[in-house]
Design a protein that fits this description.
The protein has 167 residues and is mostly helical. It has two domains: 79 residues; 76 residues, no CATH class. Helices cover 86% and strands 0% of the residues. The longest helix is centred in the N-terminal third of the chain and has 35 residues. The chain is elongated and about 70 Å long.
Length: 167
């Protein structure tokens, strides 16, 4: 039996790995900078100390750690959601239960009430495409059906997040 590769989940994992590596590199660079400036500050005081601290902080800001942490967090969330949806489709034999579980992990109840038909359409498309991909044919067409449905699901989860921020 051939093992079917799930490109969407592999890409989400690769995205998370890249985000993690970017954070790790930036954190290491900030630590090197911190050490370097701590060494330099041992021999100065007063205005020179204030200038060195300002210089160090400006250089540290250039590493944009906050933005990198945000990207890492978003990547982790995406990987977790893709993984959970894949796990549900592959392990829950009852289709309606599987669809309901996916909806519950991805969407809040109030959003589901307002967008029920659209959410149902894309969750069903994702579910159907992934079941076909996993059980019948791991063709490029089946992969594209999964990707297309997941892209719409992500668009809707993004809409949900924007609505939550606006509220």
């Amino acid at each position: 039996m051939a093992i079917r590769r799930h490109h969407l989940i592999e890409e989400a994992k690769a995205e998370l790995d890249l985000a993690y590596e970017a954070v790790k590199r930036a954190e290491q660079a900030v630590m090197v900078l911190e050490f370097e400036y701590n060494e330099r500050m041992q021999d100065v005081s007063g205005d020179a100390m204030t200038e060195l601290i300002a210089e160090k902080e400006k250089k540290q800001e250039s590493y944009t750690l906050d933005a990198l942490y945000e990207v890492q967090n978003e990547s982790a969330q995406r990987f977790a959601l893709v993984s959970a949806a894949f796990a549900i489709v592959s392990s829950v034999p009852d289709e309606e239960m599987s669809l309901d579980l996916i909806k519950r992990i991805l969407f809040r109840r109030d959003f589901l009430r307002r967008h029920k038909l659209e959410v149902d359409k894309f969750i069903r498309g994702f579910h159907r495409g992934l079941r076909e991909y996993m059980r019948k044919e791991s063709s490029p067409e089946a992969d594209q059906a999964v990707r297309t449905a997941w892209a719409e699901i992500e668009r809707m989860t993004g809409q949900q997040a924007r609505e939550a921020k606006a509220a």
